[in-house]
Design goal:
Blueprint (H helix, E strand, L loop, with lengths): L5 H11 L4 E5 L5 H6 L7 E4 L3 H15 L3 E6 H7 L1 H10 L3 E7 L15 H5 L5 E4 L5 H13 L6 E7 H5 L25 H10 L3 E5 L10 H14 L2 E4 L6 E3 L13 H8 L4 E5 L23 E5 L6 H10 L22 H11 L5 E5 L1 H10 L6 E4 L9 H11 L5 E6 H4 L5 H8 L3 E7 L4 H7 L8 H6 L9 H7 L4 E4 L2 H12 L5 E6 L1
Parallel strand pairs: 1-2, 1-3, 3-4, 4-6, 5-6, 7-8, 7-10, 10-11, 12-13, 12-14, 14-15, 15-17, 16-17
Antiparallel strand pairs: 9-13
C-alpha cells in the first residue's frame, strides 16, 4: 500500500469537502504541498504572481459560487501580502480556506529570517485559525476548515501547515476523497412576522436597505422582487447598500440604486425615514468620520433588521410582503440610455457599457469614476451580476474578476476599474492571459486619484499644489495598452464613445482577455 504524506492527505480531504480550486503563490515551505498536487487532478491550481491576486481571486470565486476556494501562500510575509483582499472578503462574508506553509516544527525556535507570528497576522481576517500539529492532524483540520469557512454566512478559515508535517508519511491507510459534504445553507432567520408587519404599517416613511450576497441574499432576484412589492404597498423606497458583495441587476428587476457614498446625500435619503428596514445589510455608517455628521446615520430605534449580512433574507421579505397584502410583482421595463457620442465621460462610459453588456455578464466594479454612473444606468442592461469593493482596500477589481471568471466559465466577465487602484494588483493581468479567461478590463484613465481629490475639495476647499501633486498619476502617464500587452493581454485605447462601443463589440465577440484604456 502506497504511503500518503500529510500534504497528500490534506488535498484529498479538501477535495472530499468540495474544494476544487486553489489560487497559489507558494514558496519553499510549501513545496511538499506543490508536489502533492501531482496526483490530485480534482483540484485546479491557478497561479498568481502576487498574493493579493490570489486572495482577491478566491473572494471573487466564493462570491459567485457560495463555496470556498483555497489559497496557498508562503509563510507570514506571503500571507501579509494578501491581507488587503482578505479584508474585503471578510466584509463580503466570502468563504475562503487559506493554506499557509511554515518552517519545519523543529526549526521554528531558531527565529530564521522568514519566521513570523502567523496566527496574529491571520486572526483579524479569519473567523477561524488552526495550526496543524501533526501529520495525522492534516486531513481532519482540512475538513474542519471547509466547514468553518461556511459558518456565520461565510468567513476566512486559515490553516498553518509546518513543512515537516507536509512531508511525513501519514500513519495508517491513505485518506480517500469522501463524498462532497458541504453544510446546508443557513436557514432564514427567525422572524416575528406580525411584529415586523405592524412596525411597517405604523411607519409614515420607510426606507429599505438591501445587502448583497447570494441568490437568497438581499440583492438576489427574489429579495428585490419582494422589496419592490413592499415599496408598492407602503410607499417606501429601497436602496442597495453602498458597496454590495453581490447584486443582481438588469431588465426585469427594480432599478434600486446604491446608497450614496458621501454623508450628505446618504442622509438626505435616510433622515426623513422613521423606519429603516435592513435586509441583509448592516446599519449604515459614514465611510469616514466627517465633522458635523454622526458616524451611525440611523439611530437604533429607527432600525428594523430582518437578517445579518451573509444570511438569507429573501424568504423573510416575501413573507412580509404577503402579510401586508402587497401587490404582485410586475417586472419593469427600463429604457436603454441613448447611444452617446463624442469624447468619453463617466456617464457616457456607463451608457455604452449598459448598451453593450451581454446577458448573464459579471461586472467587477472598483472605483467611483465610472462605477456609480454605470450602476445607475445598468438597470436597463440585460440581467447581470455586479460585484463591488466591500471593504475599501483597493486592488480588488482585477483579482475578483479572475476568480469570478474561473467560477463561472460560461459567463462574460467585465472589470470596470479606475487606473489608480488597478495598479495595486496589476499582476492579475498575467493570470488572465495564462488561463485565457474571458475577462474584458475597462480602465478609466484619468491619471489621478480622483476620490482623494473629491475628499480634499469637500466643503468648497481648494486643492493645493502639494495635494494636487500627491494625487496625480500623469508624470509619467501609464501606458495601459503597452502594459497590458506586456502581460499577454490584447489591448486598445478609446477616446470617444463611438470608439469604445466598437472596441467593446470586438472584445465581447472573441474568447480570452482584453483590455481597453478609456481616455478621460
Amino acid at each position: 500500500m502506497t504511503e500518503q504524506t500529510g500534504a497528500q492527505a490534506l488535498w484529498a480531504a479538501l477535495s472530499g469537502e468540495g474544494v476544487d480550486t486553489c489560487f497559489a503563490n507558494p514558496g519553499t515551505t510549501e513545496l511538499d504541498l506543490v508536489r502533492a498536487l501531482e496526483g490530485q487532478d480534482a483540484i485546479r491550481c491557478v497561479i498568481g504572481l502576487q498574493e493579493n491576486v490570489c486572495t482577491g481571486a478566491a473572494d471573487g470565486y466564493g462570491r459567485m459560487t457560495g463555496r470556498p476556494a483555497a489559497t496557498l501562500l508562503h509563510l507570514g510575509p506571503g500571507f501579509a501580502n494578501g491581507i488587503a483582499n482578505l479584508h474585503n472578503a471578510r466584509r463580503a462574508r466570502t468563504p475562503i480556506v487559506n493554506l499557509i506553509g511554515d518552517h519545519t516544527s523543529w526549526h521554528l525556535p531558531f527565529d530564521a529570517p522568514l519566521t513570523s507570528d502567523i496566527e496574529s497576522l491571520a486572526r483579524p481576517v479569519s473567523g477561524w485559525v488552526h495550526r496543524i500539529g501533526s501529520t495525522a492532524d492534516a486531513p481532519r483540520a482540512a475538513a474542519q476548515a471547509v466547514h468553518q469557512s461556511l459558518a456565520g454566512g461565510g468567513q476566512g478559515a486559515t490553516l498553518i501547515f509546518p513543512a515537516d508535517y507536509q512531508a511525513e508519511a501519514l500513519p495508517g491507510a491513505p485518506v480517500a476523497p469522501a463524498a462532497v459534504a458541504l453544510p446546508a445553507a443557513a436557514d432564514a432567520p427567525a422572524l416575528d412576522l406580525a411584529a415586523c408587519a405592524q412596525r411597517l404599517r405604523s411607519a409614515r416613511r420607510v426606507v429599505i436597505l438591501l445587502g448583497g450576497g447570494g441568490e437568497r441574499g438581499g440583492l438576489g432576484v427574489r429579495a428585490q422582487r419582494a422589496a419592490a412589492r413592499l415599496c408598492a404597498a407602503l410607499g417606501a423606497t429601497a436602496y442597495a447598500e453602498t458597496f454590495p458583495a453581490r447584486a443582481e441587476r438588469g431588465q426585469g428587476l427594480p432599478a434600486f440604486d446604491r446608497l450614496p457614498y458621501f454623508p450628505e446625500p446618504a442622509r438626505a435619503v435616510l433622515d426623513p425615514a422613521d423606519l429603516v428596514l435592513l435586509a441583509g445589510a448592516l446599519p449604515p455608517v459614514t465611510y469616514f468620520g466627517y465633522t458635523g455628521h454622526p458616524s451611525l446615520m440611523v439611530e437604533a430605534e429607527r432600525l428594523l433588521a430582518l437578517g445579518e449580512p451573509g444570511h438569507p433574507v429573501a424568504e423573510a421579505l416575501e413573507q412580509l410582503a404577503d402579510a401586508l397584502d402587497a401587490p404582485a410583482f410586475e417586472a419593469p421595463v427600463h429604457p436603454l440610455p441613448a447611444a452617446p457620442a463624442g469624447p468619453l465621460t463617466p456617464a457616457a462610459i456607463g451608457a455604452v457599457l449598459t448598451r453593450a453588456l451581454p446577458e448573464g455578464a459579471i461586472v467587477s466594479v472598483e472605483g467611483g469614476t465610472c462605477g456609480y454612473p454605470f450602476y445607475a444606468a445598468s438597470a436597463a442592461a440585460p440581467l447581470h451580476t455586479a460585484l463591488t469593493n466591500t471593504g475599501g482596500a483597493i486592488g480588488q477589481g482585477l483579482p475578483v474578476a479572475v476568480g469570478a471568471a474561473i467560477a463561472c466559465p460560461g459567463r462574460q466577465v467585465v472589470g470596470l476599474l479606475s487606473d489608480g487602484s488597478t495598479q495595486y494588483t496589476i499582476q492579475a493581468l498575467w493570470t488572465m492571459a495564462h488561463e485565457q479567461l474571458d475577462v474584458v478590463v475597462l480602465i478609466a484613465a484619468n491619471h489621478q486619484y480622483a476620490i482623494l481629490r473629491n475628499e480634499l475639495r469637500r466643503g468648497g476647499a481648494a486643492l493645493g499644489k502639494r495635494a494636487e501633486a500627491l494625487t496625480a498619476l500623469d508624470s509619467p502617464r501609464i501606458d495601459w495598452v503597452g502594459l497590458a500587452q506586456s502581460y499577454g493581454v490584447p489591448a486598445t485605447r478609446a477616446a470617444t464613445a463611438e470608439e469604445l462601443a466598437a472596441q467593446l463589440q470586438d472584445a465581447f465577440g472573441r474568447r480570452g482577455p482584453a483590455l481597453i484604456e478609456m481616455a478621460l
